[in-house]
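thought: fold this chain, then report.
action: predict
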Amino acid sequence: MKNVLVPISVRLNNLTDDLITVGLLAFNENSSFYDFSYEKLKIVKSFLDKNSIDFLDDALKSMSTTFLKEAKINEIAYLDKILNEKYIDYLSKYSNGIVKFGEPKGFATELNNESYLKAFRSFVGAEPGKIISKGISSLRYEMNEILKNDAFKNVDVKYSIKPTMVSGIYAPHKLDFIGINGSPYAGLAVDFTKDVSEIDKNIVTFRAIALGLASRTKDYDMSPGKYELFFNEPVSKENVILLDRVRKDKHKGFELLEFDKIDRAIIKIENGTYRKFSESEFAL
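observation:
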């Protein structure tokens, strides 16, 4: 699998073509990373007029929507058109505006959060902002691929828990999987490279569902059940702090597990007599 790095620069002067590198795009056929440096952007803005600054702000932020767009089935073809070396090479040769795409460069190391950060510091010469996020191969994408395992055919996948089923939520919320074997077993993957407010919302919702389901099991003489929240490695300092807070919460009602331990869920379901939660008396 070929990894591609694309420096993103800003032209300070169309006459001299002076450039300052402010960001970096990195991608392969499964994943994409993009961010820009606020520190470098501040330097660039000191050379530009207001109209150029406004355009630049919009351009750099809109790229995050384009390059890091979550891959839904009907969008994969669109992403393939944008994130391929040939198209980026075209942009690098013919982008004549204020934003300049550099020549695509090969990247031999495995492309992940850590390697992207190292490459960013090397190419940009500064720390990235807060946009860093996997695109095509986000945690959600990886989880969706794992849910194709035959083990999950025995349980419900992408099952919506409704407010009528548990207290503490006010709208339906989907779990990645949920089954029942004497008691419920449910899991959800949460991407810790996202914005902290989004992560917190997902965690608080899962906590309410886990505690709500555990409470209802008493009505059916069941044990409380098992609820697992899977996470990936956080990138920003704020995300690390949030993860630490969740770890220290002794009353969260669920187990916090690294995403690479998702195999445990497969083994647990394969070795247990699990059935679909939706077909159980508990759900009905």
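thought: worth noting. The two ends are 47 Å apart (CA to CA).
final: tokens above.
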